[in-house]
Amino acid sequence: MSSIALPLLLVLSSTAFTAAKSIGVCYGVNGDNLPSKQEVINLYKSNGIGGIHIYSPDEETLQALRGSNIEVLLDVATDTIPSLTHTASAKDWVNKFVVSYSPDVNFKYIVVGNEISPTDQWALYILPAMQNIQQAISAANLEGQIKVPTAIDISLVKNSYPPGNGAFTDDASGFIKPIVTFLSNNGAPLLAKIYPYFSYTENQQSIPLAYALFTQQGTNDMGYQNVFDAMLDSMYAALEKIGAPTLQIVVSETGWPSGGYQGASVGNATTYYKNLINHVKGGTPKRPFAPIETYLSAMFDENMESGMEFVRHFGLFNADKSPKYGISFNSSHSVEQRIMCIFSS
Ligand SMILES: *[C@@H]1O[C@H](CO)[C@@H](O)[C@H](O)[C@H]1NC(C)=O
Ligand SMILES: *[C@@H]1O[C@H](CO)[C@@H](O)[C@H](O)[C@H]1NC(C)=O
């Protein structure tokens, strides 16, 4: 190996490392037949799942995560948000749920507000609560490791096709602008829920199944091969229009159901997840080459989820812990191997 080649190898390996860690799984608990918290975390470990999204600071889960090195995306529970606008309460929250478990638990994000709409009663509290949590994280010297984002959904973006026309709705702009400034100032990403499945079921005339499942041959006239990229890029375009052209988006939820509605089947879900896991190693047309950090939703079918039948079929595993699909969550390790092959050939 020549000395000139060495820096290149280092750059490539660090990219591969990021890619290897880009898949996490959301741990929803709306079921009365799910395994114990410890068993669930063991299932993450035995499947090599490197990240977990938890929806509230459940101490049994945090306890089970000690020593696991699994990256944790932790939501503050929605009904806690107003209290976090008080500095002392935010500090207590961080001490109780973060500092007491750190560094045994590998926290990556503390998420203030999950899919809060700008017209929601909670909207006014989001930014002050984020600021207080950030302050408490900094006071604990954890600001280098733990970022404090919020998670939004795609309904905040209008004109989402072609993706370049994406813009935040008038309601959303006032809400999201100061939040985006806060995120940029703290080097934090914006979190987004991206569900090509809903795009497909809601717009079957314009969105073919193949375009939602990453199986379309070639790109369309706008240069897109799949809905996932188009959705993400419409949000990137919206961020550019409010002066945040470099903010990163992390996909905090995406998934495909195995039954209960149109397009929902084990076959289609397998196709979606396999292609998605492979796809997120690279970027979107607007953000090429950078891996897309992505959390799959969800770990289990949740029999107590309310709504249409398909919402109870989003699990990657059955309640008895058997896998529903033949997919490998850490297959991205092969990226490193592929890069080594390219390098040595
Ligand atoms: C994925 O992780 C599991 C459990 O850690 C391990 O047995 C398996 O070899 C890994 N697969 C790859 C492709 O790295
Ligand atoms: C995917 O969904 C479509 C539409 O419901 C269905 O016709 C097709 O059989 C499904 N494919 C698989 C492999 O399950």
Polypeptide structure, described:
Helix 5 runs parallel beside helix 6 (170-185). The protein is built from 11 helices and 10 strands. The chain has one domain (5-344): TIM Barrel (Alpha-Beta Barrel), CATH 3.20.20.80. It is globular, with a radius of gyration of 20 Å. It has 345 residues and is an alpha/beta fold. The strands form 2 sheets. The chain has an 8-stranded parallel β-sheet, with helices on one face. It has a two-stranded antiparallel sheet with strand order 6-7. Helix content is 37%, strand content 12%. One 2-acetamido-2-deoxy-beta-D-glucopyranose (NAG) binds at residues 46, 48, 328, 330-331, 333. Residues 209, 262-263, 265, 267-268 line the site of one 2-acetamido-2-deoxy-beta-D-glucopyranose (NAG). InterPro entries: GH, Glyco_hydro_17, Glyco_hydro_17_plant. GO terms for molecular function: glucan endo-1,3-beta-D-glucosidase activity. Residues 1-20 form the signal peptide.
Notable characteristics:
binds 2-acetamido-2-deoxy-beta-D-glucopyranose, disordered C terminus, 345 residues, 8-stranded parallel β-sheet, TIM Barrel, 11 helices, disordered N terminus, two-stranded antiparallel sheet, 37% helix, alpha/beta
Question: What order do the helices and strands come in, and which of them pair?
Answer:
Layout: H1 5-20, E1 23-27, H2 37-46, E2 51-54, H3 59-65, E3 71-75, H4 87-97, E4 106-111, H5 123-139, E5 151-153, E6 157-158, E7 167-168, H6 170-185, E8 190-193, H7 196-202, H8 209-212, H9 227-241, E9 249-254, H10 266-279, E10 294-296, H11 333-344
The structure holds 2-acetamido-2-deoxy-beta-D-glucopyranose (2 copies).
